Amino acid sequence: MARVTVNGELIETVMRRAREGFLAPAAFRRPYVWGQDDVERFWASLLRGWPIGQFLIWRPPEGIDLAGASRGRIGPLQPHYARRFSILLDGQNRLATFAWSLAPFDTPGPSDMTQAERATWRSGKALVGDPEARAIHFVPVEEATSGNRVPVRALFENALLWSLVLRTPGRVVPQAHLDWFDQVTRLLMDARCHVTELVNLPPEEALEAFRHLARAGVAMTDGEFEAAMAWALPSSRSRPR
């Protein structure tokens, strides 16, 4: 049955869907455009418990051919899609930022990285959790492990976090740093987002819902939209060009 659902989900749950091949970005969405300031504001919002916007997802009916529907990857996550996957219609930059943030510093970049991805994630700086600054921010790569700084992924993996923080036997870690790590890991593991899911809607209805629900940023023209989604709309395929 076709329906629209709105739920609060753990951000890590949405990320897991992408990592396991059940979620792919829509082909018509523009490439990644966030800079380092945008990334730091995103994480500052999460650390404050502020809303980070919705994810709009289309789960098409059985039998819909999704060939050509997806751009292919979310951040550094290469596609290996499940038999039936959903399309991320809105929220690509946020989810891609989450994926890049959790990747190891030395993860090889995809060959088709955008200019913005290279400037943000391959600039000689690394994103770290910094208890001294009480922030998640970029620092030069050579300073990424100094003090008690840790890669962001360690804030989601307790075993990794404490192995890094306590990496030197007998080392004294300030109590304020330990308290910050404890507070941040609890907060991030429970961080939630709004997920609007278009379940079993045919392409025409899903695209109309997108037009109404995802109007942030620079709007696409009707021509751009229909050209990008010609794979799904019979009317677009049959209309003379």
Could you explain how this protein is built, in words?
This protein has 241 residues and is of the alpha/beta class. 36% of the residues lie in helices and 18% in strands. The strands form two sheets. It has a five-stranded mixed β-sheet with strand order 1-8-3-4-2, with helices on both faces. Strands 6-5-7 form a three-stranded antiparallel β-sheet. Strand 5 (125-130) and strand 6 (135-140) form a beta hairpin. It starts with a strand and ends with a helix. Residues 216-220 and 235-241 have low confidence and may be disordered.
CA distance, first residue to last residue: 35 Å
Secondary-structure-based class equals alpha/beta
Percent strand equals 15-25%
Regions with little confidence, pLDDT below 50 for 5+ residues: 216-220, 235-241
How many distinct helices? 9
Q: Kindly state the mean pLDDT as a whole number?
A: 83
Radius of gyration, in angstroms, nearest whole number: 20 Å
Approximate helicity band? 25-40%
Number of strands: 8
Strand order of the largest sheet: 1-8-3-4-2
Specify the overall morphology.
elongated
Describe what is shown at a glance.
Helices cover 36% and strands 18% of the residues. It has 241 residues and is α/β, with parallel strands linked by helices.
